[in-house]
Design a protein that fits this description.
globular, 11 strands, Rossmann fold, 289 residues, two-stranded antiparallel sheet
Length: 289
C-alpha cells in the first residue's frame, strides 16, 4: 500500500494522489519527490556521482558486494516478487538485481535527484522516487527492502529502520550492509558523510528494536581487513591532499586478485561461516507474519 505522508491514509491507486486528502508529491527532475528540499547535497556529494557511476562497475568491492547481496536475496527470500532499495545511489545494486532476477519487480529511492538520474539510465524498468528514508511512503508493500551502506549516513538510523519495518509485508524482510568497527574510522568516512561505523551488537539491538527478527549476520571484507587498516594508516593528513575516490581507482590485476579473495569469502559465508570481524557487516532480518 502507498502511504500519504500528509494525512497518513493508505491507498492502492495507480498514481500518487491521495484519495483522502488530495495531496500528491512534488516532482523533481522527472521523479516523484517526497522531500524535494533535501534533493541536493544531502548525505553524499552530488559532484562525485558521475565518477562513482564510472568506477563501480570496474571496482572489485562493488562487484563483490553485489554478488553477496544477490546470494542473500536468493538464499533468504527465494519467493520475493518485489524489492525496494532505500538509498539506491547510481543504481548499481538494482542493475545487478535486474540481471540476476529478471522477474523481480524493482523499486529504488534516493535522497539525491542526481543519483536517481544515473539509476534511471541503468535500470529503466525500476520505479524510482526521491525521498527521505526517515519518511517512507509505503506500508506493508514490499517482500524485501534493502539498504546498502546507507543508514550510516543518517543520524536517525533507528527511525529509518522503523520506517523500513512498516514498508515490509508480514513475512517479508530486509537486507542491510553497513561499515563496521570504530577503529577503522578515517577521513574516508568523513568525506563519505558517514556519521558512524557499527558494532555488530549495536546494529542487532537497533534492528530488534524496530521489530525485525535477525536471521543472519556476518562480517565481510574480512580477509582484506589488514589491507583496509594499512590503507587508512597511509591517508594524507591534509584535506587538500585527500581524494575521496582514490581507493576505487585500482588497476586491473589488483582488482582481479582482490575480487577472487572476496569470492572465496562469499563461498565461506554461503557455506555457513560467520566472520567475526571485517570492514563491513551483512544483516538479514524478517518481519513477523
Amino acid at each position: 500500500m502507498k502511504l500519504c505522508l500528509r494525512c497518513a491514509a493508505t491507498f492502492s491507486a495507480a498514481g500518487w494522489r491521495c484519495p483522502s486528502c488530495g495531496g500528491s508529491p512534488a516532482e523533481k527532475d522527472g521523479f516523484p519527490a517526497f522531500a524535494p528540499e533535501l534533493a541536493s547535497d544531502a548525505g553524499f556529494k552530488d559532484a562525485l556521482f558521475d565518477e562513482l557511476a564510472q568506477l563501480e562497475a570496474k571496482n572489485f568491492w562493488f562487484r563483490s558486494r553485489n554478488r553477496l547481496i544477490q546470494w542473500s536475496l536468493r538464499r533468504h527470500f527465494p519467493k520475493a516478487q518485489n524489492f525496494l532499495e532505500v538509498g539506491c545511489g547510481t543504481g548499481f545494486v538494482l542493475s545487478g538485481l535486474a540481471s540476476a532476477f529478471p522477474g523481480l519487480k524493482l523499486g529504488g529511492s534516493e535522497i539525491s535527484s542526481v543519483g536517481l538520474a544515473h539509476a534511471a539510465r541503468r535500470v529503466p524498468g525500476a520505479e524510482l522516487c526521491q525521498m527521505d528514508a526517515r519518511a517512507i511512503p509505503f506500508a506493508d508493500e514490499f517482500d524485501v527492502l534493502g539498504a546498502f551502506d546507507v543508514i550510516e549516513h543518517i543520524h536517525e538510523d533507528e527511525a529509518v529502520l522503523r520506517q523500513m519495518y512498516r514498508a515490509v509485508r508480514p513475512g517479508g524482510g530486509m537486507l542491510l550492509t553497513v561499515p563496521q568497527h570504530d577503529f577503522l574510522w578515517s577521513r574516508t568516512d568523513e568525506q563519505a558523510c558517514h556519521v558512524r561505523r557499527y558494532a555488530a551488537r549495536d546494529l542487532t539491538a537497533k534492528v530488534d528494536a524496530a521489530g525485525f527478527r535477525v536471521e543472519r549476520m556476518t562480517s565481510f571484507v574480512s580477509l582484506l581487513l589488514p589491507l583496509m587498516m594499512a590503507s587508512r594508516a597511509r591517508q594524507p593528513a591534509a584535506d587538500s591532499e585527500y581524494d575521496p575516490l582514490a581507493e576505487l581507482r585500482i588497476g586491473g590485476f589488483a582488482n582481479a586478485l582482490l575480487g577472487k579473495i572476496m569470492d572465496a569469502e562469499r563461498l565461506a559465508i554461503s557455506a555457513g561461516l560467520n566472520f567475526p570481524a571485517g570492514g563491513s557487516l551483512l544483516l538479514v532480518a524478517r518481519k513477523a507474519s
